[in-house]
Amino acid sequence: MSDQSEQKRQLRQKMSLLRKALPPLQFAPSLLNKLPPFQTSQIVAGYWPMAQEIDVRPFLFAALAQGKKCTLPVVVQQNAPLIFRQWQSGDALEEGLHRTVHPFEGQPILQPDLIFVPLLAFDHMGGRLGFGGGYYDRTLSTLESVRVGVAYDEQEVDSVPMDEFDQRLDWIVTPTQVIQCQHEIKRN
Fold it and tell me: pLDDT of 66-111, one tens digit each?
């Protein structure tokens, strides 16, 4: 195991324990007023929360109320990018790989222009430590979407260990702030 892999493993373990100790939290949709890319987005991707992830459903309800389309990620197969199926409030969902929850197969596949991304740790340069499966990194590397990490303030670290495959975030939303990440945006 490389030094960087070991650093990630240790940070993942530390931040998982930290997040389990934090109370469940739903963000106020009013935070979206401080997120300029949300105002111009047409298709917003969120996620159905699991394993102490922050609940972004209020953001999705706010997007729907503004006439935007919403999507949820679908793990199609291991080691593959995610796809995003359209979701509306009240739609039935099904369980997928890794106990994720997503829209049924008949829902349209859409490409979001803004993606809310779960994480374990972040830094101000847009570094993101995920859960280790690489699904979001594989997905973000193929999309032009604005990437918005959603985190507790306590999940901020000085520097997230990043390798060549890790994808940076453009923005971070916490309960107390909206952060524009300080990195040069490079898209494929």
Answer: 999 999 999 999 899 999 999 999 999 999 888 889 999 999 999 9
Catalogue the E-assigned strands of 11-77: 43-45, 69-74
> How many CB atoms are closer than 10 A to CB 106?
7
pLDDT at 1 over 70: no
SS (H, E, C) 107-142: CCECCCCEEEECCCEECCCCCEECCCCCHHHHHHCC
Average confidence score pLDDT of the chain: 92
Instruction: Please give the backbone phi and psi of residue 16, each rounded to the nearest 5 degrees, phi first.
Output: -65, -45
Domains in the chain, please, with CATH? 3-22+31-180 (3.40.50.10420)
Q: Are 185 and 32 in contact (CB under 8 A)?
A: no
Q: How many angstroms separate the first and last alpha carbons of the chain?
A: 29
